[in-house]
Each structure stands twice: as structure tokens, then as C-alpha cells.
Design brief:
The structure holds two protein chains of two kinds. By secondary structure, chain A is α/β, with parallel strands linked by helices. Chain A has one domain: Udp-n-acetylmuramoylalanyl-d-glutamate--2,6- Diaminopimelate Ligase, Chain: A, domain 1. Chain A has helices at about 5-10, 35-40, 55-65, 80-85, 100-105; strands at about 15, 25-30, 45-50, 65-70, 90-95, 110. Chain A has a six-stranded mixed beta sheet. The radius of gyration of chain A is 13 Å and the shape is globular. The model of chain A has no long low-confidence stretch (mean pLDDT about 95). The longest helix of chain B has 21 residues, at about 50-70. Chain B has a single domain (about 1-155), classed as 2-Layer Sandwich (Heat Shock Protein 90). In chain B, β5 (about 135-140) and β6 (about 145-155) form a beta hairpin. Chain B contains six helices and six strands, in the order βαβααββαααββ. A six-stranded antiparallel beta sheet of chain B has the order 1-5-6-4-3-2, covered by helices on one side. Chain B has helices spanning about 10-15, 35-45, 50-70, 100-105, 115, 125-130; strands at about 1-5, 20-25, 70-80, 85-95, 135-140, 145-155. By secondary structure, chain B is α+β, with helices and mostly antiparallel strands. The radius of gyration of chain B is 15 Å and the shape is globular. The chains are: A alpha/beta, B alpha+beta. The interface of A and B includes residues 33, 61 and 64 of A.
Chain lengths: ~120, ~160
């Protein structure tokens, strides 16, 4: 799916990255714990999270996350948005809760960047 | 006290450095947390190193940087790139770690609420650093500080994803 289709599906608002909506997304990861995002999320995945602080953007930059969907209607601080603009990471916000957001995406063919945490980790 | 994983470091000091630099990290604040990691990632990206190695190096740097911001008074991150390895050292002046074995256990953390609000402090940081490094060593002196050394092999056959 493209980020544009994801935006429509989730009735989301684009906060950063209007020019990156043609980006193709195949996998996603959802968590509010950045240490888990760092441990498990894969490059090119969509990140679903309820956290809005600047470390969400830094974490996404480190991992080459394709875009961030902030769930439960969360809106990041101007500081977070500035960093996302600087690092060219799209940020969208949706009113759907994390469970619904993940379910809607899954129904459209987006899969988790891993199924279980005991799947073979790529770099260990 | 110390804990480690992988090969001994002696081999590495004989390799000529293609790049070496030290980056200061401010302790006790999150204002610039992650800034050094982004910088180091951008630097490595420009060096024709595979995406995977860059990603792992950025990840271990970032977890270390968050640790310095969370627990130390001040610190620095030293990056050294040789033809075969990326070495990252995180050296801080701070309270040090009382029990390294305990600190290395997944889920153990002494994090404050402030750290947890940022999405960290779940006792994963040092485990992540160890898992994503080929070589890892941690030494710490109570009241003085902590020294992490992470080495990632540059795999020339691996062209990334």
C-alpha cells in the first residue's frame, strides 16, 4: 500500500511528509516502548505508536522507519515535528486506537515486520 | 566490574583507522538526545558501508547515547572506522553501575519515570547493545563512570536490504 492509501484508510492527518505519500509500505510494527522498537522493528516498516516525544523520531531515523502513525489521536509537540521535518520522516495522526489501526492495515495486506519474537532475529 | 561478548579487542588496535572522531554527549538532559547517533549514522552512510552495518552501528550508538543522557553527568562517543570494523565507544562520567550482571539482565532497570515517559527504561538497552554488536564489553567504576565498547564487523559480502 502507499502511504496515501494508508492515510485514507485510517482517516489520518498528515503532519509531516506531504511530499512522501507515494512511498510503498509492506510491513509494520506497533509499540509504545522505544527499546522494543529498536530491538524488533525492521527497516522500511511503518511504526504505529502512541508516544509523541522527539525520541520517537530519533528511533525511527536510526532504524530507517518509512513513516510514523501516531494512534489514539495523539499530536506531537512542535519540537517533535521540527525533528521529523529535519530528518525527512513522515508523521501521520489517526483517531483510531492501536488495535483498530493495526487491524485495518492487516486486513489490507500489511503484515508485521516479524510474527513472533522468537523468529530468527536478523542480526543476532 | 566488567562483562563482555565476542573476540578480544587487541586485534583491532593494529588496524589503520580510516576515520576517528569523538563526539561529546550532554548528561542529565534529553534536549539533544540522539543527535550524535544521527550524526554518526549520516557519516557512516557516506562511507560505502552496507546499510545493515550502518543500522546496527546507529542502533548501538543510540542506546548508549540515551544511557549517557539518562544516567551520567557527561560523556562522549568515540567512533573509529577501519576497513573491517566499526568501533563505537561510549565513555561517561557518572554514578557507574553497581551490579553489571544485574544491569545486563533483560527487564532490569533503575530508570526514573522521566526516562520511561520517553519510551525507554524497560531494561532492554544493554541487551540490545549486546545483541546488535559482534563484540561488546562493559566496564564500570562506582562513582566514576561507565565505559562501553561495541564492535561491528563490516561484512563485504553482505549488500544490505
Amino acid at each position: 500500500m502507499t502511504l496515501r492509501e494508508i492515510k485514507e484508510l485510517l482517516d489520518a492527518e498528515v503532519l509531516v511528509g506531504h511530499d512522501q505519500l507515494d512511498k510503498e509500505i509492506k510491513t509494520a510494527f506497533g509499540a509504545d516502548l522505544m527499546s522494543d522498537v529498536l530491538a524488533f522493528a525492521k527497516a522500511g516498516s511503518l511504526l504505529l505508536t502512541g508516544l509523541t516525544n522527539p525520541q520517537v523520531i530519533r528511533t525511527s531515523d536510526v532504524l530507517d522507519i518509512a513513516a510514523i502513525i501516531m494512534v489514539r489521536g495523539k499530536r506531537p509537540s512542535p519540537e517533535t515535528l521540527r525533528l521529523a521535518e529535519e530528518l525527512l520522516i513522515p508523521v501521520l495522526t489517526t483517531k483510531y486506537i492501536l488495535f483498530e489501526t493495526a487491524g485495518k492495515l492487516y486486513a489490507k495486506g500489511i503484515v508485521g515486520c516479524m510474527e513472533r519474537v522468537d523468529d530468527e532475529r536478523a542480526f543476532t | 566490574m566488567a562483562a563482555w561478548k565476542g573476540l578480544t579487542t587487541n586485534v583491532l588496535s593494529h588496524e589503520p583507522a580510516l576515520y576517528e572522531n569523538s563526539f561529546p554527549v550532554e548528561g542529565g538532559t534529553y534536549e539533544n538526545a540522539g543527535h550524535v547517533s544521527s550524526q554518526i549514522k549520516a557519516l557512516l552512510k557516506g562511507m560505502k558501508i552496507s546499510k545493515e552495518v550502518v543500522r546496527r552501528a546507529a542502533l548501538v550508538t543510540y542506546e548508549s547515547e540515551i544511557n549517557i543522557c539518562s544516567y551520567a553527568r557527561s560523556g562522549k562517543i568515540v567512533l573509529r572506522v577501519t576497513p573491517e570494523h566499526v568501533t563505537i565507544e561510549a565513555i561517561d562520567e557518572g554514578q557507574g553501575i553497581v551490579d553489571i550482571e544485574l544491569a545486563m539482565q533483560e527487564g532490569y532497570s533503575t530508570a526514573t519515570d522521566r526516562i520511561r515517559e520517553m519510551g525507554f527504561g524497560a531494561g532492554m538497552g544493554l541487551c540490545n547493545i549486546k545483541n546488535f554488536s559482534d563484540f561488546f564489553r562493559i566496564t564500570s567504576e562506582i562513582g566514576k563512570g561507565t565505559h562501553l565498547k561495541m564492535v561491528i564487523r563490516i561484512d563485504k559480502d553482505f549488500d544490505g536490504i
